[in-house]
Amino acid sequence: MLSKIIAKLKSLFLYPFQFKKFGKKSRIDKPLHIDGKKYIEISDRVYVQPYTWLACQPLTGCSNPLLAISKGSVIGNYNHIYATQRIVIEDHVLTADKVYISDNLHGYANPDIPILQQPIRQIGEVRIGEGSWLGENVCVIGASIGKHCTIGANSVVTHDIPDYCVAVGSPARVIKQYNFETKQWEKK
């Protein structure tokens, strides 16, 4: 019981002063790790579920990296979101459990050096459009997703996905897009 009270107080009073921005009625429950809080912006009414790792570190030379989670978004359990330049999650985005979002990769160019010891490679800024949903085990690596998209479970997004699309697979490909003229979801 005491541990629950301490956790609640921690989320209400400690977090806001450590982040670049921490909005009203936002909550981060039992984070696994939070690295680079001074580069992380959490808007109003954001809920980050337990065991998520949020990180924003200038590991690729960017002097002012940003990880921003916009208002009303819900980040699932065991998510791993790691920015070295810029990741923006727009308003009302929902991620399922075990989602991975990154704008960088481990370098592997030199086969004589363990990958762990090679420099981090910047690959592309990431933007997750408003109202989108990322299913269970989705990976987004250096690509952006448009607004009101659904990304199917176990998909790996390595190329940009336009607005109002359903994408699935590894690599993810668009299988449906909403047509505003016919007011129908159409197969691609």
List the SSEs and their pairings:
Elements: H1 2-18, E1 21-22, E2 27-28, E3 33-35, E4 40-42, E5 47-48, E6 53-56, E7 66-69, E8 74-75, E9 80-83, E10 86-89, E11 94-95, E12 100-102, E13 104-106, E14 120-122, E15 126-128, E16 133-134, E17 139-141, E18 150-151, E19 156-157, E20 165-168, E21 173-179, E22 184-187
Parallel strand pairs: 1-4, 2-5, 3-6, 4-7, 5-8, 6-9, 7-10, 9-12, 10-15, 11-16, 12-17, 16-18, 17-19, 18-20
Antiparallel strand pairs: 13-14, 20-21, 21-22
Question: What does the model show?
Answer:
By secondary structure, this protein is mainly β. It contains 1 helix and 22 strands. A 6-stranded parallel beta sheet has the order 3-6-9-12-17-19, with no helix packed on it. The mean pLDDT is 94.
Radius of gyration: 17 Å
Beta strands, count: 22
Element string (H = helix, E = strand): HEEEEEEEEEEEEEEEEEEEEEE
**What would you call the structural class?**
mainly beta
Strand content: 35-45%
Fraction of helical residues:
under 10%
Summarize, please.
The protein is mostly beta strands.
